[in-house]
Specification:
single chain; 769 residues; mainly beta; Jelly Rolls; 5 domains
């Protein structure tokens, strides 16, 4: 749901500039350096100050939570200040708590993503004078403090608690993209440490304490970076209240369109109210933020649930031993929890011989402390296959069942830990050919009248065919070049273009989509932008799941040059060449030579394909480039992208060329038609030969007939360069023996330069009577 300057979107954005044209484009785009407060409250109205650069003339604002944003009317010159904007925010009472994202747009582009928390705790700012115990800032909870840590310093806060009171303390930093690695300490009034937290399980390196106070009195909270680092990007939000210390819902996944009741996993979940939800039956929803309160509580802990179409099975204790295994249907997803250290879970299901399934662990990416270890076992508990981590990600195991019968899925924490926070989810699916996609940027500013690019990378899982790549929900005036990750390739550069008259100031979300075909079945994938978000947010351990697919599209000013090609697609093949014109549209004064190069320089073209790049000369507006394929070049559809660089004094203009489609087919193919297929002794029969030429092949062909029966001859035949059809005359001698052949073929031979080319028709029948 997209709003103009007076409204806010309910969908997500993403974060990098994307390669566009001149370097100044990213510098001209708006940038958010900080927001204050760092959270907005459900059911409340308040002001949100956005600080940064190039903010003047803001046209749109976009966020991943529902509500309204309007320019605060009581702020002088609001919307005209290049360093600050103030929005009036209004959120519905049921706005989901958790980490979200926000961006702004101007006629010069869209900003990078800035994380923001939807929080039912009120916000105050750190007073920046709280660097010692003696100057500790007093807090009256429930409250949340927005602060920033400086290098070699600590921030001190003072709270008053009563004996028996349970209070939760939490630092949100890494989870909202801060560079801070927080350490949280709780001291008594004399400075004695009562407890501390560093890297609380499941919180991506953030700190969390749930403490029961023994006596009435004043207590001190100490917040610092574990490495004593600090600075503008070391912001944090300290939450103090009665919220439960949860890290993930349980179950961790929900079936779309079905009602579900969530319990929660975490370090202290006593008296937590279950949350009942029916996830909307909307295929665009892949994750959903959920919150939880204690009975009678006023503040929430928050977590994220995965959303899908599969049935969700839940464990039931006891299920530690093979004879106790929970019966499930193969293909149902699995949800469980290790209740105590050393706990193990088993699930039994029936499989068929040759059936191949994938079991994928989902834990840390959704906030669980568990490091899941999985085994496939026979029904007696004997190991057949196992998996732990897959690099930095949770493990994934594909297994082909050797026989019909019952098998076990065995799960435990790798380090044999257990407790309320050790929940897990196993996504179970048929191991059919598929692929996953990642996109290199979560923000693209397309220069008007020109193009920008995003690199799309595939991880193939048994699928080696072409992947058609596109972008959905493009804004007005923009288009996407048809793009293919061809066979044998794992990445491609996708280009997006904006018309010269495309409306400036737009801000939309879009997704990179991939499609393939296996037999008659279509397979699809949505590209993840999590890596780009992490890179733009101080390498946070896990990007918020709700922000992991939709990237932001904005429009940037027209560059000094724009580049295009004619034609948009080249068809050629092995030992053949094809020509393309690269055409430059120059603004006045930018007449220098434009150097062209394939992007990326390494692996930007399929093996066996080259292009003789040369610059567009100074003062000229076009150049012709020749693509060549050797005898080993792969056949199929591919996309090649070029980049142009113009240097004018100290200014460097860098502009992408929209992708060129490369369609590699055989130089020619041959078909033969014998009509009735009957040839009488002493008579003649005309065979119609048709050649389908690759547009890049225009030479003559010599034809010969293969596998003629004894006594039958074929007249010599040549197909001129300007012809595609010829008749070859067969003659049966008077004494030819009666025969029937089923493998009569016509072979065509030609030359492309020094390369010999040939093709043979499919077999046809011939009967000699």
């Amino acid at each position: 749901m997209l709003f103009n300057v007076r409204m806010l979107a309910t969908c997500l954005l993403a974060a990098l500039c994307g390669l566009a044209s001149v370097g100044q484009i990213c510098a001209q785009a708006p940038a958010i350096s900080s927001i204050s407060p760092q959270a907005v409250r459900p059911g409340a109205t308040g002001n949100l100050t956005v600080n940064g650069s190039n903010l003047a003339g803001v046209t749109n604002v976009w966020a991943s939570f529902p509500g309204e944003l309007t320019l605060a009317p009581d702020v002088k010159d609001n919307g005209k200040n290049k360093a600050q904007i103030v929005y009036r925010t209004t959120l519905p009472a049921d706005a989901p708590v958790g980490v979200h994202g926000i961006r702004v747009a101007t006629p010069k582009g869209v900003s990078a993503l800035r994380m923001i928390v939807v929080d039912d705790l009120a916000s105050v700012a750190s007073n920046n004078a709280n660097k010692t115990r003696q100057t500790a800032q007093e807090l009256k909870f429930p409250i949340a403090v927005d602060g920033k840590i400086d290098a070699l310093t600590r921030n001190y806060y003072q709270v008053t608690a009563k004996a028996g009171q349970i209070v939760s303390f939490e630092v949100v930093a890494r989870r909202m993209g801060s560079a801070m690695d927080p350490l949280l300490r709780l001291l008594d009034a004399n400075g004695r440490e009562l407890t501390y937290s560093d890297d609380a399980p499941g919180l991506s390196g953030d700190a969390q304490i749930c403490h029961t106070f023994q006596t009435d009195g004043q207590y001190i909270l100490v917040v610092r970076d574990i490495r004593y680092q600090g600075g503008a990007n070391h912001n944090y939000r300290l939450r103090v209240g009665d919220f439960p210390c949860i890290s993930t819902p349980y179950p961790m996944a929900a079936q779309r369109g079905q009602p579900v009741e969530f319990a929660f996993a975490g370090i202290h979940i006593n008296n937590v109210q279950p949350t009942k939800l029916t996830i909307p039956n909307d295929t665009g929803i892949q994750w959903f933020n959920v919150g939880a309160k204690r009975n009678g509580g006023t503040s929430s802990g928050f977590a994220t649930v995965a959303v899908g179409t599969g049935h969700q099975a839940h464990e039931s204790e006891p299920n530690n031993e093979p004879g106790q295994a929970n019966r499930i249907e193969l293909g149902h997803n699995v949800n469980g929890r290790f209740q105590q250290p050393g706990d193990t879970d088993r699930f039994v299901f029936t499989a068929k011989k040759g059936q191949r399934m994938t079991f994928e662990a989902v834990t840390r990416s959704l906030g669980s402390a568990a490091d899941l270890f999985l085994q496939i076992q026979n029904k007696e508990g004997g190991k057949l296959a196992e998996v732990d981590d897959s690099g930095t990600n949770d493990g994934k195991l594909s297994f082909t069942f050797p026989s019909d019968g019952d098998f076990l899925l065995y799960a435990e924490d790798l380090h044999k830990r257990g407790g309320d926070q050790y929940a897990y989810h196993v996504a179970v699916s048929e191991a059919t050919p598929k692929f996953k996609l990642t996109a290199s940027a979560d923000r693209i500013n397309i220069p008007t009248g020109a193009a920008a690019l995003i690199t799309v990378t595939s991880v193939r899982e048994g699928y080696n065919g072409p992947i058609q790549v596109s972008v959905d929900q493009l804004p007005k005036g923009t288009t996407c070049t048809p793009t293919v990750i061809g066979p044998g390739m794992n990445s491609v550069v996708l280009t997006l273009q904006a018309a010269a008259d495309a409306p400036a100031g737009q801000l939309t979300t879009a997704r990179v989509l991939g499609k393939g075909v296996v037999g008659e079945a279509n397979i699809e994938a949505i590209a993840s932008i999590s890596g780009a978000i992490k890179a733009g947010a101080n390498n946070m351990p896990w990007a918020p799941s709700i922000l992991s697919q939709a990237f932001a599209l904005g429009l940037a000013p027209r560059p000094p040059i724009s580049l295009r090609t004619e034609p948009a697609t080249l068809e050629f093949g092995r030992s053949l060449t094809a020509k393309v014109k690269v055409i430059a549209d120059r603004q006045k004064g930018y007449d220098e030579a434009i150097t062209l190069a394939v992007t990326p320089a390494k692996n930007g073209l399929p093996g066996g394909i080259t292009v003789a790049v040369k610059p567009i000369p100074k003062g000229a507006n076009e150049v012709e480039l020749v693509f060549s394929a050797n005898e080993k070049a792969p056949l199929g559809e591919f996309t090649a992208t070029l980049n142009g660089v113009l240097k004018k004094g100290k200014t460097t203009v860098n502009q992408v060329v929209p992708g060129v489609g490369l369609k590699l087919t055989a130089p020619f193919s041959v078909t033969a038609d014998t009509g009735t297929g009957e040839l009488t002794k002493g008579q003649k029969l005309n065979v119609k030969v048709t050649v389908q030429r690759n547009p890049a092949f225009t030479g003559p062909l010599t034809l010969s007939v293969q596998n003629l029966p004894k006594g039958v001859t074929a007249a010599a035949a040549t197909l001129p360069a300007d012809k595609n059809e010829v008749t070859v005359e067969l003659t049966a001698a008077a004494d030819a023996a009666a025969a029937q052949v089923k493998n009569l073929q016509v072979k065509a031979d030609g030359m492309a330069g020094k390369a010999k080319l040939s093709a043979t028709s499919a077999a046809v029948n011939l009967t000699v009577k």
